[in-house]
Structure formats: C-alpha cells, structure tokens
Amino acid sequence: MYDIVIIGAGVSGCAAARELSRYQARICVVDKEEDVCCGTSKANSAIVHAGHDAEPGSLMARLNLEGNRMMEELSHELDFSFRRNGSLVLCMSEDEMPALQALYERGVKNGVEGLQILTGDEVRKMEPNVTEEAVGALYAPTGGIVCPFGLTIALAENAAVNGVEFRFNTEVETIRKSEDCFELETKNGTIKTRFVVNAAGVYADKFHNMVSGTKIHITPRRGDYCLLDKTAGNLVDKTIFTLPGKYGKGILVTPTIHGNLLLGPTANDIEDKEGTNTTQAELEEVITKAQRNVKNIPMKQVITSFAGLRAHEDGHDFIIKELEDCPGFIDCAGIESPGLTSAPAIGKFVAEILRDKAQLQEKENFIAKRKGILDPKTLSKEERSELIRKNPAYGNIICRCETISEGEILDAIHRPLGAHSLDGVKRRTRAGMGRCQAGFCSPRTMDILARELEIDMREITKSGGESKIVVGLDKDRL
Amino acid sequence: MKSYDIVIIGGGPAGLAAAAAAKKSGIDSILILERDRELGGILNQCIHNGFGLHTFKEELTGPEYARRFIDEVEELKIEYLLNTMVIDISKEKVVTAMNRQEGLFEIQAKAIVLAMGCRERSRGALNIPGYRPAGIFSAGTAQRLVNMEGFMPGRKVVILGSGDIGLIMARRMTLEGAKVQVVAELMPYSGGLKRNIVQCLDDFGIPLKLSHTVVDIRGKYRVEGVTIAEVDTKGKPIPGTEVDYECDTLLLSCGLIPENELSRGMGVEIEPVTSGPVVNESLETNIEGVFACGNVLHVHDLVDYVSEEATTAGHNAARYVKGELEENRGNEIRLIPTGGVRYTVPKTIDAGRMADELTVRFRVGAVFKNCYISVYYDDERVAHRKRPVMAPGEMEEVKIKKENLASYPNLKTITIKIEEA
Known about the structure:
Chain A is an alpha+beta fold.
C-alpha cells in the first residue's frame, strides 16, 4: 500500500512528487505513457508567464506569481534551462489601448513587478521586428522562457532520487474507494493507496468524476505550433503576445530557451483527449496571425509543427483541493496556461495539503539538488577535450544538427528514470530536435538504445507502445 | 595547432574527388574530415546500380563507385579522419573538429574545400498536418535502415515526393517485400530522373500521382493511414478530392537542402535559389581560398557530375595554394539566369582565371518541350541549342570556351534562358 499515488507524470504530477518527496511517505507516480512529460507538458508555449492575465484573487493568479518567482532558484537547484527574457503584450489598435491599460492594472493587482506600458515606437526600439501596426505594448520584465521537458524531467528525476516510484505504461482504468484506501485498477494490476493526487491533465475530469458526485468537465483545447530553425531564433528576444481575446492569448512569437523561434498556439476546443493532430487550417492561422505581430519571419525555416492540448476546465481556474465528498482524493485539475509557470507552486501547494491531511514528517536526508545531463557546449575547449579524453563517447557526435554526442545520450539512458525511446532521448538531450528532425541520427540513436538496453532494434519505439520504428528484417515476408 | 595546405570538409563523392584532384595538382598536405564511420558518404547506402555511366562508362552500384575514389585516395596516400565532426570554421580558415581520439582540436588550412553534401527536407519543413507517429521517414533514412542496417521500416507504404531517392526507395521497398501503394507529387512534374520513373515505378506498377499531396496523417503511435488530395495550380489541396490510404509508413522525398551551416558560420555568401554558396568560375566562394563542390553547392542528380565538379574545385584549391590562381580582378562577367532558368553555377566568370572550357550547370523551373537553350553575350545570342525535353529534375549545362570570350573583352553579362524558337 502506498501513502500517495499521483496519477499523471506531467509537470504538475512531477512537481507534486518532488515536493512530496521531502516527506517520509511511500509515493508512486503512475502514467499511461512510457515516460514522463508525454502529454500537455511536452507540447505548449514553454513560457514562464509574468502573471498579468489571470483574474485577480484566483488560484491561477496566485500560483502563477509564485511559480514565476520560484522558477529561477529552482532552475539552479535542479539544473534545467530557464531565462527571464521579458515579454510584451502588443496592442494593435488605438481602440484597444484601454484594454491594455486594464491588463496593466490587473497585473499590478496580481502583484506583477516592473510592468510598463510602452508606445509603439518604444516597442519597436526594443524589438525592431515588431510590425508597424503595434500602437503600444505592456512590457513585463519578469516574463521568461523555460525548457518544459527539462523542467518536468528534472522534477521527476529528483523525486525518483528521493524515493518516489514511477510506474509507466500503467493506465488507471477505475478507482474504487474502500474504507481505508483507494484501489486503482490498472492494466498492470491493482494499486492501493491512502491518498490520490489527480494530476491527469486532460483526463483529470475522468478520474474526478469516478469518485465525486460534483462533476467537473475538461475540454481539450488544441493549439497548433510551428517551430523554426535556430537561424531564426534571434528574430525577437522577448516573448511577443497580443492582447488576449475570446480564445486565450492569441498567437505568440517567442525565442525558445534553446534558441529556436516558436509560433503559436491556436485555440480549438475538441472532444478527443488524444487529438494532438495538427490541421491545415490551424497551421495557416498560426502563420498568418504571427506575421501580423512580427515581420520578417522566415517561414521557410520551419523545422516542425505540433499540437498540444490545454486542459481547460469550465470554471477556468486551477482546481487544487481535496474533494469534499471523497476525502483523501486531491484534485490537481484544470491546469492549463499558466500551468507550466505555476508548476513549482502547484507542487508545493499539493504537498502542503497532503502534509496536513496525511500528517507527513519531513525526511532528514532529502536531496534538494539535481545535476542535469552535462552539455559539453557549456565547457571551454580545454575542458571539453579533457572530457573526451576521460570519456571518448563525448567525442562521438550522433546528432549533427544539435551537436549531441554519444556521451550525452548514454547519460540520458542510464540516469534515474532514463530514456528508453527515441523521443525519450530527444527530450532529454535534444538529439533529433534539430533542422533535419532526426533524419541522420535516428538509426544511430537506435543502435545505441539497442546496445545499452540490450534489446532488439525491432523493439525500439519512438514513444513507447505500438510506436515501433522498424517492423522486421529485409525480405522477411518474401 | 596542426596545419594543412588543403582541408576538405566531407569524405563523400565530392570530397574524395576534390582530394584526388588536389593531390594530382601537386599538393601533398591534404586532410579529409569525414563525420561518418567510413568514406563514401551517401553512396554507401545507394546499393542500386546506374552510377558511373559518364565517368567510367560502366553501370556501378553506389558503393562500387565510391570504392573507385576511395582506392584512389588511398593510393595517393591522402590523409583522412573518420568519425570526425567539424563544428566550426573561421574566416581565417581555422577548422575546429572533434572525435573520440583527439578530443576537440583545431587545424589551420591554407585552402578549404566545402563538400558537406545535403540533407533531406523533413516532414516539419513541409508542414504536413496530422499526427506525429512512428512510421514517417525521409526516404534517405529509410534507405539507410533497409540497405545498411537490414531492417524494414514498414509493410504498406505511401511515398510523398518523387525525388530520386523516393523513386529508388519505391523499388527497394517493393523488392524487400513491402507494398508501395502510391507516389504522390505536389508538382505537376516529377522531381526525379525520367529513367528512375520508368525503372522504379512503371516497371513495378506503382502509380505516380502528380499534383497531389498528403493532407492528413493518422495514427497515434504508428502511422495507420494518410489522406492524399489533388492540389490546384497554387499547390493548395482541392476539397472533395481526398482519398484515404491505409498504410503503416510514409516516406518523404520532397527535396534536398545543402548543409551550409558551417559555410554560413564562416561568412560564405549563400545563393537563395540553390541554398548553396555563391561561387565564381573557380568554384571559389566569396571567401578567398574557400571552394565548394557537390551537393553542398547545389543538389545534383548524377554523381558523375559531382565528381567532375569536385575535380575542378580540388584542382583550383591546389592552384590557390601554389599561388597560381590569379588574383580576382573584380572585372567579372555576371551570369544571368532568366526565362525558365532558375540559377547557374557558377554565378560569375573571370575570363583571366577560367580554364579553356567551363561547364555552367543549371536547372529549369518547369517542364519545357522542344525548346532551346540560348546563351547571350550581353545582347548577342551566341548559342541556341534545341532540347526535346527539359525538366526541373534533370540538371542542364552549357559550355563556355575561353577562346570565344577572348573576342568579347568588355563583356559584362552572359544570359542563359529557355526560348521557344
């Protein structure tokens, strides 16, 4: 029997796991996918929001601010990439200036520091590629960009090092509440636990509604994105939003933490909780709208497009609390934007609820620091040569586009909660994330995975389950 | 820091031929840097025949063709390093590279030959909508898996793009036991060689659908199907023309992109049409002593022409090192591609520096039947050659003779265009 089972190994679940791992408790994170960070957490804008959007007084507003403030220190503690690049909310017509003013005031109410309203000319002085149409902007110096995989994986690894178990490929099918515990039926058997944290993203309503009479409803809100090559990464330095409309924040243009340029997302409410397909219409919308805000976007430099689902709850606020009609079941639901920003605060908030409910005691030997995968590009030439001398695998470049060595891939495979698929390697090291999109390196990464995991090439998957890369041997059906 | 007279970036067909030519032109200090585990580049996975018809008057496989040049490089005792990745080249021709044995190291070169080849356009660059499951491969990646690793990427295949690798892979997948259902091509003409359409599609009864593209990819984990639709003259899908194909694999053969990240990094000027360096008659870039050849310069369809071009580049690199390549005097003749001609390589000619005969290569932007390739010296038409068929998938050439240019001392431009009469 576990003390706590967390359903969902996304950023919220992993943040909760990491914070809970400070306490003496048997904790398990279960996820239906093969790795952490496979749902909403992997496909989003990767933005650390300043916090001016949420309704003052909402949980969203509070955790956004807290998360934003925690992010920098956490990035040092857990060694993931984060940069406070600042953000601009563009106003594209004089008529909307009052709305910009209102956004400023809301931000001030929420406690966002350093907000400033700029004129169109001031904006273009700051960001020369903002279009002439912009008549003003709200500048938020505390806005930032983060690696969403890096953050989630760092939280998960640190939780694992501190004793949290992770069970992947373990979809929870039903939840039964018995007298003293919850029984989670999964494909891999029954899991018993005293407490449940429901951090299931777009599926959080499903689990909530299994145990509660007060129903919630989550709509997967799909957003398409286009990612551009690093040669386009300097087009803007700050994250460029436009004034929020009926469907969220509109199309943003932002550098990513790794130096690419990201455009998106659209906002399309769908039914299918697995509906992460991009559509022609939405990709075109991304391209058209992005060019309204920022000029000179080299659309020929698009290297990939993808879609993510936001877990939009009807009430449009984070729901993080113990269910009144089902004690011991803690919702962490409706975590849509600014969920990634809020994650550190969400984790802390969930942990505080459980500390009190479950009367958890702090561990003495909690390990707060985590070292990420060494990036040799951060070393001096001498250090890098020394590294290769000690471990020649760092001299063997596997991914040409991102210059990722075998050494980094080996580290990704063998560290706690290591990668066992091409996507797992990609999210941890960036191998395959460059301009050729794994054309050159996938056969070589497969070789390494097969060798290190001692499995056949035919067992290697892109992202677990049925996503096998090769299906047989030449001529095996002839 | 080690130093070499000529450092060649890439040990594929271009790099090998450039190295051999440089050596034969009298330079001893040559180093080839190759990122893969063996020399020969992409030819190693091209196990079909048809290589070398022009160069050797024989039909060789890719590895056999490569072997001839590798043997020559070995016989000439040209140095090379394998598994070695070049990560930077400075304007001053300092090459930074790394490998397992030597770590990160620098080499000072007097001349550099860029021969890095090209990469395939990915699904992302094509912005094909749909899911992102396993089973979507660029044709070249699938070719490597099948021909070098021995694995089948899938059983039921749809191919988007009729570039040569896609056509070759349609045949290969069929021979290995897969069912290739259709090849869809966005353009109203094929991007590949006519002979490959005949030998790889027609001979196997594989339909080629021109003016068609993939508008949806289904399958959460592995490809389960794709939708193909007809496109209008602007390349936009026509509603109502969608046809669903059940398949587990989508191969993409939608164009090749010269790999010029290193070139850009050192300040080499890039021609937007080819995505390759701008070069003069000596195949020299805007940086003195830096030459380019092969698919990094412009994408070729026949390796024979790569070898020929690289021989010129290697020879000129040697002349540069020996001080025999006259200084560029700046009074260059500009080559102007127009009237259906998309680009020319080279882009300028210095008559003083050119060889007795210069091959100018180019591609046309559409299919032309019974038209003429015309060459104008300034406003005077000096050549007018009839071609029954010209297509974007097949590289064309004209020869410029030094002796002819001698009678035009004040020539400013040479225009190459396609004319109907």
